[in-house]
Amino acid sequence: MSDRLRDYGTIRATQDSPILVTGGAGFIGSNFVLDWLAGDRGALVNLDKLTYAGNPANLASVQNIHRYTFVHGDICDSTLVAELFEKHRPRAVIHFAAESHVDRSILRPEAFLKTNVDGTFTLLQAARSYHDSLAGEEQKRFRFLHVSTDEVYGTLSPEDPAFHEETPYAPNSPYAASKAASDHLVRAWVHTYGLPAIVTNCSNNYGPYQFPEKLIPLMIANALQGKALPVYGDGLQVRDWLYVGDHTSALRAVLERGRIGETYNIGGGNQRSNLEVVTMVCELLDELVPKSAFRPHLQLVKYVTDRPGHDRRYAIDARKLEGELGWRPNESFETGLRKTVEWYLENTAWVDSVTSGAYQQWMEQNYSAREPGNATTVETRGAVDAGKGAR
Ligand code: NAD
Ligand code: TYD
Fold it and tell me: Is 68 a catalytic residue?
């Protein structure tokens, strides 16, 4: 057994067995961990490599809770992963760990194949032999919940119906391809080895602790500093936004009541064009930071060269999850976005801490080569209305 595991007390595989979370120091993972530990839901072990996207500060408020154990490590480390199963005897795995940013996957796809494909394979193998070693009730209740994305389904035109669980996979970016591969591995481990796994495919999340490389926190962070707000292409690409707390509640429902071998799509029914999202962020900042020197923040929008292979539209049909498991999102896009902007305004120290040297290098790498687009000012209403028409 490796040294980093020796210090932890042994937990038997009883009703009190923990769940094992991977990638719990990232955006969705840390929201899941915080929500889990806020309720009376048992112990949780968090395995995270702490890449640029993982931040232990997200979990500072729970680090001394006895039900919480943090393990710094890689899901590709088969020895460590096997030891974790043996030591903690989890009742379930919730697998978030991944490389998750499309733009990074375009510039450097290697890490996406390593973590998202090899890492998931390593975890599945360890979960399979652990599951085989269990008996009776313990074996019956074990679950492997694989957290995935709607991007595996590819892109929609404005008239297409939303993605449903039977939509054929058609991934277009290295990120989406690596997640699609991992979903297929999970499916095969269910069918071939009887691993009791479930896959969820969720739409774009937003909320507290999202790394400011993704659209919404990037726009907030840049606008507060008076920096350009880079909108790719014409800004009329559509995403279906879900508040992160609604994603974590859906995952708990799937974990407790989802059917083995099934896929559940998760989404909030909030389709918005990127330009519409940026406009709403700017208007919230105008209201919440009335003394800002950069008002109206919308003047900061700069159209830049589009992302290669940019998917035009995502939309999720979540009726299976709603009908079978009775899940509903709590937040509308308006309430969730307001909460999110307020969180970033109250947590500028968190933003400063994650936008260090490596972040500046990423910004330089991703944005400096992008040419200005055709439009240099935003014709707000016309453009936003055009985005709405795309739904
Ligand atoms: P994130 O990039 O914010 O966090 C990823 C976490 O995984 C980080 O804490 C990182 O340190 C950890 N990690 C990365 N490689 C690892 C490895 N080899 N071993 C152990 N830990 C490792 O990602 P996120 O946005 O929180 O997404 C979490 C999961 O949800 C991903 O699987 C992603 O595909 C999926 N998802 C994300 C969204 C979204 O909008 N963000 C939507 C649907 C699904
Ligand atoms: P992102 O947050 O990276 O999520 P995803 O690519 O997984 O959907 O991007 C959301 C949308 O915002 C996507 O259409 C790309 C666009 N976008 C910009 O226009 N400018 C940016 O600087 C970023 C990061 C994204």
Answer: no
pLDDT, position 383: 37
Ligand nearest to the CA of 29: 1
Cα separation, 137 vs 252, whole angstroms: 20
For residues 69 and 48, the answer to whether their CB atoms sit within 8 Å is no
Taking residues 110-119, report their average pLDDT: 98
Q: Which amino acid is at 279?
A: T
Given a cut of 60, whether residue 363 has pLDDT beyond it is: yes
Q: What share of the chain is helix, strand, coil (3-state, %, to 5)?
A: 50, 15, 40
- E strand or H helix at 35: helix 27-38
Once rounded to an integer, what is the mean pLDDT over residues 224-236?
97
Ligand 1 pocket test, candidate residues 96, 110, 173, 321, most atoms within 8 A of CB:
96
Catalytic residue among 68, 130, 175, 314: 175
CA–centroid distance, 191 to ligand 2, in Å, is: 35
Burial of 64 (0-12, 13-18, 19+ CB in 10 A): exposed
CA distance 206 to 266: 14
> Into how many domains does the chain fold?
2
User: Do 279 and 252 form a contact (C-beta atoms < 8 A)?
Assistant: no
* CATH assignment at residue 292: 3.90.25.10
pLDDT at position 33 is 98
Ligand nearest to the CA of 203: 1
* Residue 315 resides in a domain: no
Q: Is residue 325 part of a domain?
A: no
